[in-house]
Amino acid sequence: MPRPRILRGWLPPSSPYGPGHRGVDLAAPPKTPVRAPGPGRIFFAGRIADRSVLSLVLDGTGEPPLRVTYEPVDALLPTGTRVTAGTPVATLSAAPRHCRESCLHWGLRRGREYLNPLALVQLPRIRLLPLTRGDPPTPS
Q1: What's 30's DSSP letter?
Q2: What does the domain layout of the chain look like in residue ranges?
């Protein structure tokens, strides 16, 4: 499966009601399957304002647990359904659009804090620094 193109990245708000982009917009055609990123349960599947939204609470992610949201989508499963990683939970809806082209808005929260959803799929870059002459090795 090819990696989707990012149309708009995550931009955390400076305050709870400040401007920002509280998720990532991924290019995708209507009817594209949307899958659960991990095990959990469907927390909400319905309409909020003019968009259809699906939200999942992920198991084993701490307290409060991580919650992912997708919009605009057509839910395939009702609220309360338990899912595993990779389970199709929705399809991308044809309308309404908030991007110039068809896209999926993908969000991530822990409690009231918005997080970058790409953290669920990207490994951090680790850079090891070389020992300089005379530095003792670090005990393991």
Answers
A1: T
A2: 22-120
Between CA 97 and CA 84 the distance in angstroms is: 28
21 Cβ contact list (under 8 Å, min separation 6): 8, 9, 10, 11
**Alpha-carbon distances, residue 113 vs 37, 68, 74, 85, 110 (angstroms):** 19, 12, 26, 23, 5
pLDDT digits (tens, 9 = 90+) for 63-121: 999 999 999 999 999 999 999 999 999 999 987 677 888 999 999 999 988 999 988 87
Q: What is the pTM of this model?
A: 0.81
Quick one: which of 59, 52, 116 has its CA closest to 85? 59
User: In a 3-state reduction of DSSP, which class is residue 79?
Assistant: coil
Fold held by 22-120:
Glucose Permease (Domain IIA) (2.70.70)
pLDDT in tens, 30-74: 999 999 999 999 999 999 888 899 999 999 999 999 999 999 999
Q: How far is 54 from 56, CA to CA, in rounded Å? A: 7
Tokens 């349960």, located at residue: 41
